[in-house]
Amino acid sequence: MATLQLSNITKRFGDTEVIKGIDLEVNDREFVVFVGPSGCGKSTLMRMIAGLESASEGDIVIDGQRMNDVGPADRGLAMVFQSYALYPHMTVEGNMGFSMRLAGVPKEERRAKVLEAAKILQLEPLLDRKPKALSGGQRQRVAIGRAIVRNPSIFLFDEPLSNLDAALRVQMRIELARLHEELDATMIYVTHDQIEAMTMADKIVVLHDGVVEQVGSPMALYHHPRNRFVAGFIGSPKMNFFAVEQLAVSSDGVVVRLPGGRSCTVPVDGQQLADAEELELGIRPEHLLLDENGPLSGQIKVLERLGGQTSLYVQMDELLITIMADGDVAYRVNDTVRFGFSPERAHLFDAQGIALESLTQHPLAGLTRHDNRAPGQAAVHGAVSPGEQV
Q: Where are the domains of the chain?
């Protein structure tokens, strides 16, 4: 059993409030990712959980016990930092077992725990090597192994993959997901990389300017972002936004006029909208469809061929729109293209940047990595119908 509750957690440095009353629950065996831009407070929040920073207000409760006045060494946690922080004169085995050696654990017991962790991390052939003889990914696995041997109640990861190259980051993401399955442990992971968050998390906590913008499964945040910030942060490439004119509100949704003059009905609840309220439409690049009869048009300014996909950067009036298309599209730079979208794939934001509630529910929005149900068995009810493309 390893749970965490944060109640009204606030952190001030002098007169500057960097964490602003956060409430959060982490359930047993969850993989929770804190994600957000630099300076949003995610590492500070992690350090308060670990006991490396004190909370100005609020309670930190681990497994039912208030931990505000408990030191870092006594909280039963293990933290893996961005820096490997390995002792260069020690072997892999020495580094992994060092904390147990300081704690007076007998040599045979230390070795047994190190061997067990090494097997999980596939480090057995490397136990006699020193850090200088290891690759970056191997060093990071040693740092993780040093945490595993402590048998913590909760693992804390503070941007552990930032120092690795792109290929190693992909490999380590796979290994961390596998490690979570094998250890069946509670893990909290901090990153600025929303791809890491989407691929590893059971639950994502999106932070911005010291507050929690939204908490949910990766697919819930992708399909049903709470506001414009979450919509623009989750997803790669980022969502396209453009202003639209509100024409009417009905039980079927909100009718808006698109750039270029054509209109469409977005199936969202607009009953609380003021008349003529300024609205923004959001469409993800992968949901824009090249269509000779589409309502939108623009000129290709940049074209990036990625093999299976092609990214088109299209100038539409003052906006640069991103479209993800098939890798074999025949367009060239400076070509004019027309495109459209299915209204069910669109997001509508009010003047305050809050997303209007969708009248449809995507069948995958409630699923996590550990949910083995088929989409038709999902706990979330309702389904997105293809609808008419506009």
A: 4-231, 289-340
